[in-house]
Structures are given as structure tokens and as C-alpha cells.
Automatic annotation (TrEMBL):
Keywords noted in UniProt: DNA-binding, Transcription, Transcription regulation
DNA-binding region: 37-56
Entry keyword Transcription: yes
Keyword DNA-binding: yes
The organism of origin for this protein: Actinophytocola xinjiangensis
Protein name (record): TetR family transcriptional regulator
Residue ranges constituting the HTH tetR-type domain according to the UniProt record: 14-74
Source superkingdom: Bacteria
Any GO molecular function: transcription cis-regulatory region binding
InterPro entries: Homeodomain-like_sf, HTH-type_TetR-like_transc_reg, HTH_TetR, Tet_transcr_reg_TetR-rel_C_sf
Length: 202
């Protein structure tokens, strides 16, 4: 017998699978992932607990899809990333870092709640398929190097790792610190200026 349809879907076009992902995504955005249970998601979605297993192998698969949807929602509200060869490398990297900081500030709380759930993180990694902000940043730097706007001996992956580290350090410090920071967080512009001294010729 087919699972009963949630009341929220009776007059809509979404599938029950999409409804469950949307519900879990909303709960993650509102409360994070810590303590999020199948029962809580099912109740919020208006379905019986066991219905989830008609559409997902396990809780980990559902949460991984909800995390990806959460990131897509957050990124959809941010400014588009600049294309290689447009504006200046400095202006473009400034835009990339500002985008990355806003993205990480919105999504890192959800990932912190998954520190003891490596299976969810593994499923999420399988779903992303190289389409995360870091991958876009590395690809952008690779393209600028091909265009000759970054020196041939530069290492785009290392530069990307430095900028990702800035995002992690800045956001995690805000989340975990209960006292004022001893030193001021560097500005986006100062970070980019420092990174560029090692990858382009002025």
C-alpha cells in the first residue's frame, strides 16, 4: 500500500521525498542538526515515522540531502560569483571571500552539530560532487592562471585553502568564543591583498 500523502502535499506538485527534504532543511536552518531525529522530522512533515524509509535508505541520506538543499538556499540569496577574466583578480577574489564568509556563517552551525555523525558528512560529500564554494574558487583561480592573470608558478589550491581557512577561523571563532577576541579579525580587503602578493605581479 502506498504511503499516505502528507496534508501539505494534497494540493501541491511536490513529491513526498521533496517535502521531507524541504522539511528537514527548514528544521536545520532554524535549529541546526544537533539532536534532529527521524521522529521530529516526520512529525513536522505530517507523516508517520516509517514513511521516511520509503523514500530514503536511512536518516543519513535524508540529512545529507537536506544539508545540500540548505546550502543551495543560502547560496541562492548571495551575490553571484564573478567569472574569470572579468574585473580585476583582486576585486574578484574580494567578492569570492565575502561570499565565502557569508556562506560559512550561515551553514557552519549545521555542520558543527554533525561532528559525531561522520556517516552524514560522508553522504553529503558524495552528493556535492565537486560543486562546493571551495571547488568554484579553485576553478576560478585555475582559469585566471590559464588566462595569464596569475603567475604560472602560483598554486591555486594552496591559495584557495588559505581563503577557506580564513572563513573557517572567522566563523568558528564567532561561534565558539565566549569572550572578546584578543585581536581584530582582518578585513576581506587586507586578506586578499596579502594573498595576492604571492600569486600575481604588480
Amino acid at each position: 500500500m502506498a504511503p499516505r500523502k502528507a496534508a501539505a502535499l494534497r494540493d501541491g506538485d511536490r513529491s513526498l521525498r521533496e517535502h521531507l527534504i524541504d522539511t528537514a532543511e527548514r528544521m536545520i536552518a532554524d535549529h541546526g542538526t544537533s539532536g534532529l531525529t527521524v521522529r521530529a522530522i516526520a512529525r513536522e512533515a505530517g507523516v508517520a515515522d516509517g514513511v521516511l524509509y520509503n523514500h530514503f535508505t536511512d536518516k543519513e541520506e535524508l540529512l545529507a540531502n537536506a544539508l545540500l538543499a540548505h546550502i543551495d538556499t543560502v547560496e541562492g540569496g548571495l551575490e553571484p560569483l564573478p567569472k574569470p577574466g572579468t574585473a580585476s583578480v583582486e576585486a574578484n577574489l574580494t567578492a569570492y571571500l565575502a561570499h565565502g564568509l557569508a556562506l560559512h556563517e550561515a551553514i557552519l552551525p549545521a555542520f558543527v552539530g554533525l561532528a559525531n555523525q561522520p556517516a552524514v558528512l560522508a553522504r553529503f560529500s558524495d552528493l556535492t560532487g565537486g560543486h562546493q564554494w571551495r571547488d568554484h574558487l579553485t576553478s576560478y583561480l585555475d582559469s585566471e592562471q590559464t588566462l595569464g592573470r596569475i603567475t604560472p608558478d602560483a598554486e591555486p589550491e594552496v591559495a584557495a585553502a588559505l581563503l577557506v581557512g580564513i572563513c573557517h577561523e572567522t566563523v568558528l571563532s564567532m561561534m565558539l568564543s565566549h569572550t572578546p577576541r584578543a585581536t581584530a579579525t582582518p578585513s576581506v580587503e587586507s586578506v586578499i591583498s596579502t594573498v595576492l602578493k604571492g600569486i600575481i605581479d604588480y
